[in-house]
# Entry
Amino acid sequence: MPPFANAAPRARRQPLLLAAAVGAVVTGLGVFAFTVDRSPAAPAVAAAAPIAAPVGDPALAALRAEVQALRAEMRSRAGYARAAAAADPAASESAASPESPPPPLAPEAELAANNELAHKEVALYQNTLAADPIDPAWSREAEGRIRETFATLEVGDSLLDEVTCHSTLCRIAIKVSTPAAADRVRRQVAALVPWNTSGIGHDDEHDPNRVIVYAARTPDLAP
# Structure
């Protein structure tokens, strides 16, 4: 377990999809990605053996590969759109090349693609946590620090409803009373995790008054 810095983190919130505006809710699930980055960076996690993201069963491995492919496709489409918007001659000349990136989708198709990726991202984090073994020492410390940090945040009447950490991933559920409270939670979610991390957050599809956050033990362990 690495030492946790007392200084406030320099948090970067970004959308799940590169084409979306920074900090935007990009689907009906309200899925967003975030990264917490401190300077200087926290030391690497000390462990008796190397820590690796859980492989899980073949279904989990297949889901991870599918999500990675969808992410790559979205990045490629976003890059094509940026080049086209900048009227890049090189991009125009390569548009007919078989190796050129795919053109942007129509609005309805783009929304469907965004929703598909968002649902699969959530499923990937859920299934990864389920397959992740518990590291008793780190899990207890991480859960305790998240609870301590939440108590210092200005999130109105929101309630920390759940904190579960295994060995590479934590799940945090925050109960909110109003849409405004949910928005405050989203704006401060990166400050909730007191170590360098990457993860996602989303509205709980089963309870509109909960925001779910997944945060990795280190950024490179995010699914």
